[in-house]
Design a protein that fits this description.
This protein is α/β, with parallel strands linked by helices and 249 residues long. It is built from ten helices and seven strands.
């Protein structure tokens, strides 16, 4: 399965979704960061190919021979990305799903609708355009009424309230530590024991150990929630091997 994560507006969590939701659950997926200025999954230690929007032709050729891919399109490159996609007739067919992260601000919701319109203009069918409600605090229906109403009225994309990632400090800690939930789950270090043994005067070490222990405590429930989001997003598509990494570990 090949999934593009994009939105005309920035700071909606595209790289978080690519790195923490999609990458651990799409086996052997190549990550393409279509970015020139902002953080990418590579900053979290994942292996990526970094391109610019104007290099869509190179990306297109790569997608033709890949089974699984994640395309993280930065807001600074989306115009070029879509413009160059238009030059390759029906090239959007090589991407199985276009995922649009959206946060609750009015601007983000308006820009998400703009992104939907651009994809529809390229010929992308509604079933291949889906929003992810991100950084949710409270009720999805209350905070994202504009998106939900537009989806129902237009029929141009899918807006499923179950596809929601809730606000959690784990994502900020992961960014600070330059790591991913998958790596935290795989790390069997007993940071509580290391804290007991550490020199309390070594503040940098103490901070690192407390952060890592906090990450371990937060990662398991968040990972289980992301499993549910992924299933709601993808369903039982046979291309999605490994739909939940170490949920019970």
């Amino acid at each position: 399965m090949k999934i593009a994560v994009l939105n005309y507006t920035g700071s909606v969590g595209k790289t978080v979704i690519a790195s923490h939701l999609l990458a651990p659950r799409l086996s052997n997926s190549q990550i393409f960061a279509i970015e020139s200025t902002n953080e990418t999954a590579g900053d979290l230690g994942l292996d990526i190919d970094q391109l610019r929007g104007e290099q869509f032709g190179q990306l297109f050729r790569e997608l033709l021979i890949l089974d699984n891919a994640i395309i993280d399109v930065g807001a600074s490159n989306i115009e070029d990305f879509l413009d160059h996609m238009l030059k390759y007739e029906d090239s959007h067919a090589e991407i199985d799903l276009f995922v649009l992260p959206v946060v609750s601000t009015g601007k983000a919701q308006r820009e998400t609708i703009k992104t939907v319109s651009a994809l529809v203009g390229l010929g992308v069918e509604p079933k291949r355009i889906q929003v992810i409600f991100n950084r949710v605090e409270g009720d999805v229906e209350d905070n994202f009424s504009s998106i939900l109403m537009y989806a129902q009225k237009s029929g141009e994309f899918i807006a499923n309230p179950a596809v929601a990632i809730f606000e959690n400090e784990v994502f900020e800690l992961l960014a600070e530590q330059r790591t991913t939930i998958a790596d935290v789950l795989a790390d069997k270090t007993d940071y509580r024991q290391k804290l007991r043994e550490a020199d309390r005067k070594n503040k940098p070490l103490i901070n690192k150990l407390t952060n890592m222990h906090s990450l371990q405590a937060l990662a398991k429930p968040v990972n289980r929630q992301l499993d549910k989001v992924f299933i709601a997003l993808i369903g039982s598509n046979p291309a999605t091997v490994n739909p939940g990494q170490n949920s019970d570990d």
